[in-house]
Write a structure and sequence with these properties.
The structure holds two protein chains of two kinds. Chain A is α/β, with parallel strands linked by helices. Chain A has helices at about 1-15, 15-35, 40, 60, 65-70, 90-95, 120-150, 155-170, 180-210, 215-225, 230-260, 265-290, 295-315, 320-325, 330-335, 335-350, 355-380, and strands spanning about 50-55, 80-85, 100-105, 110-115. Chain A has two domains: about 1-35 and about 180-380, no CATH class; about 45-175, 3-Layer(aba) Sandwich (D-Maltodextrin-Binding Protein, domain 2). Chain A has 17 helices and four strands. The chains are: A alpha/beta, B alpha/beta. At the A-B interface, helix 1 and helix 10 of A face helix 2 and helix 3 of B.
Chain lengths: ~375, ~300
Amino acid sequence: MFWHNYKYAFKTLLKNRALVFWTLAFPFILAILFNLAFARLHDYDVFEAIDVAVVNDAEYEKATVFSEAIKSVSEGDKRVFNTQYIDAMKASELLEDNEIVGYIYIEKDVPHVKVNGNGSSETVLQMTVEQIAQSSKMIEDIAMTDIYRRAGQTVNIEEIYRNAVKIVAETEPNIKDDSHVMNVVSIEFYTLIAMACMQGAMLSVEMMNRCMPNISNRGKRVAVAPTRKSTMILSNILAGYTMLLAAVVALILFTRYILGIEYGSDMRLIILLAAVGSLTATTMGMLLSVALKTNESAKNVIVLIVTMVGCLFAGMFGGQKGLFDAAMPLINKISPVGMITDGYYSLLYYGDSARFTMDVVSLLIVAGVFFALSIRSLRRQRYDSI
Amino acid sequence: MKNVIDVKHLTKSYKSNKAVDDLSFAVKEGEILGLLGPNGSGKSTTMNCILSLLKFEAGEIKIFGKEMAPDAYDIKTKIGVVFQDVAVFDELTVYGNIDYFCGLYIEDKAMRAQYVEDALKLVGLEENKSQYPKQLSGGLLRRLNIACGIAHKPKLIFLDEPTVAVDPQSRNNILEGIKKLREDGATVVYTTHYMEEVEILCDRVIILDHGKIIASGTNDELKALAKIEEKVTIEIPDLAPEKLAGFDKIKNVSEVEYDNGILKIVYRKGKNNLIDMMEYLKENKIHYNKIFSERPTLNDVFLELTGKELRD
């Protein structure tokens, strides 16, 4: 019965044009569009440093680690920024006159970027500042921990900061490295892979609806059949998951081998993360399907909103990730999109690291919780109305 | 004959609205039971409660002598259901749809292939088996819907208004198919608001209104509840008022209506009504073209019991 249902569920999914578009075609189209948008950045020889301004006020002076890092990426032949240090009013004027791509300022200890447009230079600016901000924060945290640890001792603050910089340099990507520009692009693609995984939630809603008599007529027919509900749901979900995983793997291969996006060297781990991410999205769709007392279209809209908000927080639409991380640090830690994006990011830089393992394990825990809650709601279910 | 379904004191409400109100009835093996009533009378709700799809406040439901529950798979194996709304996959062919739903009951592939062919033949879709649902007319789609519900040769079949919005040819095909299922030994519960179908098809009828049984019995038993004996219609192009008044005085006549050359007479229970009327026509030299008589219908019974038409 399981495989009979699986076979037909898979067959009907493959013939469902809307679902095939959203799960397969749409991420491919976005990948091609992203590639076109970032085409200029692929060519390192023609990459030009971005004209930026820094609001050089008391707040900026106070952020010593951050200001040093900005200074370092504004120097040398391979500099990322052509930086001028001016006051806020002048920076605003220059931006208005399009003489700079954007300006950096610090407000309440948090670095911000002000840009006018949303082109690739603006994205590189935002993501570079974001990455510098993250590294600076990490250096400061490590240094502060060291200072507290040595409480009561005579300490050399400069030495402590040097050590912190060294630790961060060993674990974080080098901002001045040539590959940095490509890394900015890679993150966009990682969020795209995460988004493709999240389409699993939509597939899952469709497959669950087929088993729910209060949502679909086919659900009524299935509910009166002598097949266990768990068998129906699992075979349906597995069919959706198979299609999703095939689509995500195809997208990874396409972006890696055709578009040249870096994922790191271990293909098994790359696929593992796609499989776990897709599983989490699939179980999320299951839970939303049973928890939301509304029709199929409304459920799909909610799934879409959850996915796109996750993508926004993970950095798909420009370099706002750092701002969101600063304002709402928990979101990317619990959002499947955030975890998948971070997983690929860490896989590229650190390989099979503790951070990658943590991302995979977290995704599995979230999937387990979603699955358990869904099954609990569905057992021996009868409805008030259908 | 033993009871296939036993429903006792079934009560189901949607918020404050009582959809099924202390309903008790039984369905005997091999019979076609009609659940007749206007829209909103509780027919589909009763069926969905019996099938364990809906929660209900009170009552007991047994099918094949066992209590029905969402996980009563041994009972479900013997049941086939055709819901009011068409429930098929647009992505599968006619054959694929029947095979899929039949496969939820029958695992043996060879047996299933035979059952699918039998179902196609029963509903007259052999020539359409490679077509997709979107290529079928409304009537053929309904037939496919039925085939998907009964292909596994169930012993008990629920049909919820299977002929809504179908053409006469498909309706006849569907009704003939249901008769054939009964001949093959199935027990059928048929819900509808078309009294003509019930009269043609059902051995026994339960008339529902506001979730309650207002009458039940065979067609003849129900019609006996009507206070009228028959309705006579006569085509009289020209009828003088004084002669029209004379019809009221004929024995057993309860209502007389003359409009546009058509005279309609309703008779109370009694004998020799037509003979008396023919004599009056002859005595008064009234010329008529056509004359025909109708027995009371279930609609008349419903009208008499509730004061409203079945299709109101």
